[in-house]
Amino acid sequence: MTDETISIPSSEEITNSTEAIGVVQETIEYFLEAASVDRVYGEPIEHGDTIIIPTAEIFGVLGFGAGYGSGQSSSGDQESGPDSGSGGGGGGGGRVFSRPVAVVVSSPDGVQVHEVVDPTKIALAAITASGFMVSMLLRMLKPKSM
Amino acid sequence: MINKIIKIETHAGEPISAGDVTIVPMSKSMLLMIPGFPAGLVWNRPVAIVAKTLSGNELVLPINDPTRRAVLSLWGAVFGSALFTMIFILRRRICKNQKE
What we know:
The complex is a heterodimer. By secondary structure, chain A is α+β, with helices and mostly antiparallel strands.
């Protein structure tokens, strides 16, 4: 049977946790604003009779965690310091990626959508994919192990 | 349950006036949240624009993403070849065992 002691957090600890919650809330708000659906279409750019609207794909990931714990000294020796303690912590992280997808051009000739091709991304994916495929081919061609 | 994990919505943005044409941007958002797990994923992308003329004509122009299509095709090819290799190696092993 285990004996668990629940300690009541002090006012300082409560202030610290409130501050931490505030930081987390601020971070989430910032993240949601950065990854908002309104960011998909950029501000229209006017150039004479032509209006250009840039469009982008937005991808965001966010994760966070927090913990709190308390403990009691098993020795019960008063001289060595306080016999109970508590602590807490938290952290999080996130990232927002964005990539241009197309450009909408509205001119007296009509409305057109010009797709944006990212050759670097395709080349990197092709190199990685071919690396995988070559390694698999080599595995297939490898003589049977005895 | 699945609605709590994945939320897919189509949004219509603020109409943009461009001469005689009004452009309504359409986008799709996907929100992935795993219950009990403090993490989330957001994916927003443009899907189409609706161009409306003063005469009432409506034109829907889809926004395709050739980069994403190319990358997904490449990963599809990798997945396919991995599956093929797995089947090939498995068959070879079965044949070897049968001979023994």
